[in-house]
User: Fold these one by one.
Assistant:
Number 1:
Amino acid sequence: MANITYGSLEGGFFNKMIDYLIDKLEQEIHTDELVDSWSLMKTPWPILFILAIYLLFILKIGPKIMEKRKPLNLKYIMMAYNLMQMIYNFIFVTNIFQPELFNAMISTLCRESSIDFHIRLRYYSFCWYFMFSKVLDLIDTVFFVLRKKQSHVSFLHVYHHVNMVISIWLFCKFFRTSCGAFVGLMNAFVHAIMYSYYFLSAFGPIMQKYLWWKKYLTRLQIVQFIIGLTYGFSLFIFDCEFPRLFTIYMIVDVSLFLYLFLVFYKKTYSNESKLK
């Protein structure tokens, strides 16, 4: 009899959770005809196809092709790519810092209802450009494979790239709240600095003595995750106008990123200190 009661309670809790999730999905997920008309946004299939080709190449096809070949010299291609990414992210950041948009972002960190429609529409477009930048980030891994640096194709690296594309696509497709602009701005700023480092490092040994700040770049990424996690919890604490489901997802996702980056930092720089 006790088992039946326990099972009933367990089943009741499970059913309530399902009902809660369905209710939240109906309340928080919505599409927009204009956004759906943009490239890659109508259905998830184009993005999933890109990710499938990406994973297939970096994990199977690429290593097989390069198995008996010498590493490709991609110095100038990589420099052009890193410079383009650096400029792309800096432009993204400077556009958000336009007075009208920046003031709107600050005023809607928790509440979005007061934002003008034309400002909201501009944030929609920024969301798409941000998502597209994450698609461009996938090229990083292709360079690793073609240069036969397969050890760089770690779980953290691949998970980070794939997860970011999927997460930002879902956000742009179904949520699109301006409350998320702060996180995008912070991420673009970090990536602008990161690609600046990559661009300079492509010059080779002549530039190495000026790149002592690599460790601090990783620290900056970790700080980014801590701020993002704090912001995620504050959305709950202050009952902000941000989708609850995406907030939960964001907290779990950023927590995992933070853990993986801390492990990477400890492994990389503690070993570096021992070698010195």
Number 2:
Amino acid sequence: MAAAPGEATWQLFDFEELGRTYYTYNGIWATRVREDLAAGRTIPPAAVATLRRSALMTYGNSEVRNAVGQLTGPALNVGEQWADAAMADGRWDPLLAHAATATAARPSTKWEETARALVADNGPGPDALREAVTGWFALVDRPRTLVLEESWRERGQLDAHNANALRGLAWLLALLPAHPGIPRALGGLVETCLKKVPGLGPRNPKVANAGVTALSRIEDEAALAELARLAARVTFKGTLKVIDTALTARAEALGLSREEIEELAVPTYGLGGAGSGGAGLTEVGRAEVSFGPATALLEVRGPKVALSWRNAAGKAVKSVPADVRRQHAQELGELKAAVKDIDKMLSAQAERLDRQFLARRTWTYRAWRERYLDHPLVGTLARRLVWTVDGTPVAFADGEVRTLTGDPVAEGTVVELWHPVGRGAAEVAAVRERLEGLGVTQPFKQAHREVYPLTEAERNTGTYSNR
């Protein structure tokens, strides 16, 4: 077959080779795209991905950007596991294509109207869409399926085009009916996108911020709890600012302080088994969930939740009963997801309490008991700390608030978190002895926190220390 005019020239510009690179600045690809499309030829998906990434580069070639405007598919860029899974059957392509237009910090009214219309016209329905999107989010941190030659660019980063789609999908979840899986998936996306890539920083803060924005637009307790959890875990300043803004706005709407909204946002966790009525942690750090004749027992032990089972005869068994796996698979999945959520929340609340340690915050006795000591989740941390009630150091023991000598404490007025700074050596020793006698392992250093009082020599030198 005779070579087409100019074919020898185009051999230097192979689409297959282009698809193995991260980006190109060469404007000749724009001409190649136009000519191939005019001739009815299809641009390989990997090459489309490279061209799209190139068009999104800050200093990208304007001709390449114009050529990309002529490309009609695929909806996402190939090469990432989550994107490949999303495009696997083509059902979601219209939604994915719209999601990829999410290039702003927040969804515009027009963008949201189109999104709502697409959701309404979506054949599989909102439940199927929710399950699909949350499943894709779980794949975002997986390795690429298409390795690029410029490995330093793909090392943990997200494809720029697909990152826009993730933004849009996060906003899309906020438009669906409330479900506990949505805040969980959005929180996971935020943390995934803030993981640091060596030498490059967070994986993709823009997607993380979109996840926070979506959470802020969901008006239910689970979303608020996830925002409060992220506030205790996130350290990246840009995203932390978005979280702070969202929590402050929610606090103002409810007429509460920022600290109060974080306290009230901690969930007790509805752990609904079959016929359980959605019961949450019924005691501090403990819950029983029925699955027919079998029972799941959850117990908070230190920083983690232990899950154990009893069969119909009430006998402890090492694994999930077969009847539960077979007849209550969905409820079992929700229970296991809730256990993971509790583990994450315990860690976040320990960090929040550690911050309160130095904030010198005070509570009324009633608010303290409700939000801390007797809270089903936070109580597992608060009962391992030392507090002061009207200035008297107290600890929880034998089901009561007691002094360091073991005497019960009557209801007081003002409660604070005990701090060794400013306390006498005898009191610090008494606190440590009391906790050791009770066999308490604290969630963070309190009784044994290091303090460095000034020595007489340092008082004399005034401006420096030889320690």
